[in-house]
Every structure is written in C-alpha cells, then in structure tokens.
Amino acid sequence: MEQFTPFDRIFSSCGRIWHMRRADMDTLWADMEKREGEERLPYWNEIWPSSLALAGWLAEMQDDIRGKSCLDMGCGLGFTALLGRWLGAEVTAMDYEAQAIEYANVNATLNGIDGVRFEVMDWREPSLPPASFDCIWAGDIMYEQAFAEPVAAFIASMLKAGGRAWIAEPGRDIFHHLLDTLPAHGLRHKRICSLPVSPLTEQEVPVPVTIWEVAK
C-alpha cells in the first residue's frame, strides 16, 4: 500500500493521477543556508502553476517529443520530467539542488515511471555534451536578471540544430531579460499561448502563465 505524508500533492493532470512527494517546507526554510552568496531558496519543493501549464503543452506535443532526446531544465520534484517520460520521450532531468533530485527519484517510483535519467547539474557548468537534446523544457526558472545569460548560453549549447525549448513563466517582468539575451546566442523565440492556471496551493486566484518557444 502506498504511504502518504501530509506534504504530498495528489492531483490530476493530462489524463492521470499524480502522486508527488514533497518535503516539509517549514523544515526547508529553517535549514536554509547561504552558498556562494546565493540563498538556497527551496522553490523546487512545489508543483507551480507554470509546471501544470507546461504539462498540458507537452501532452499536446506528444507526437513531437515521443522517442526524442529531451531535457527537463530545473526539474524540481520531477513532475514534468515524469510526464514527458510517460508521454514517450527519452528524458534527462536536471536540477541544481541534490535534494530535489532525491525527491524526483522517489516520485518516479511512486508514479511507476522508469527510465528518466536524473542529474544534479548547474546550468552555468554543464556536465553533458553540447547538442545533446532535440527538446528542452522548463517551468518558472527566471528569478534573477543574472540568470539570463547562463540560461540562454545553456539552451544554445544543449539544443541540437533545429531543436526547440519550451519555457513556461508566470508573467514576471524579469523574464524579458532572457528574451533580450537569446538572439546573441543564435536563438529566436515566439509566444505560444497564455492561459490562467489554478494553483495546487490554497491560493484561489488563477495564475496567468505564458508558454514561450525558443528555437535554434
């Protein structure tokens, strides 16, 4: 019998029920430490509206990702990586936080999904060969202006020629720093869609999420 914790998220997305194990957020905040001048903020420990929107988009793009080499960039608890694998993609999932990858592995087992390759990796110091992926996706990864250059450089390096990346973001002004940086790395972008998404948290107001496509 499956064991549940008070912090688990149980929800429906793309035609099935997902069981995502989470850490106690209060404990994570209490244990937060400084590292290299950055706060280790535990954003990874939630299923954000951007991930829910991204999941719906990946389901629409199933024929495009099935059998393709794909990267979940900042996978957190692993939801969109697991969904991509369930849809038939060959998925590598990376996150900066080792604890996030630990939970993502647990969630793979809880949801009965095999074959995702999980990697602890910093996009500023990629440990994978260039041009490794047909598709990259990410949800809600732009929190600081300083992220724009390394994120753009990473996507440009990791995508194969003709590859595409999809980024879901909840309307933060700072995201435009990334859009402005993309052309210098040989990347172009377009807005796919914007839609209101109901959060899994107690917040009652839907969050407007935009999905952008970045192409090489």
Summary, kept brief:
This protein is α/β, with parallel strands linked by helices and 216 residues long.
Strand content: 25-35%
Number of strands: 11
Counted up, domains total: 1
Shape: globular
Contiguous runs where pLDDT drops below 50 for at least 5 residues = none
CATH superfamily: Vaccinia Virus protein VP39
SSE order in H/E notation?
EEHEEHHEHEHEEHEHEE
Radius of gyration: 16 Å
CATH architecture: 3-Layer(aba) Sandwich
Distance between the termini: 46 Å
Strand order of the largest sheet: 7-6-5-8-9-11-10
Instruction: Supply the helix-strand structural class.
Output: alpha/beta
Q: What kind of sheet is the major sheet?
A: 7 strands, mixed
- Helix residue percentage: 25-40%
Report on the structure:
By secondary structure, the chain is an alpha/beta fold. The protein has one domain: Rossmann fold (3-Layer(aba) Sandwich), CATH 3.40.50. The protein is built from 7 helices and 11 strands. A 7-stranded mixed β-sheet has the order 7-6-5-8-9-11-10. Strands 1-2 form a two-stranded antiparallel ribbon. Strands 3-4 form a two-stranded antiparallel sheet. The termini are far apart.
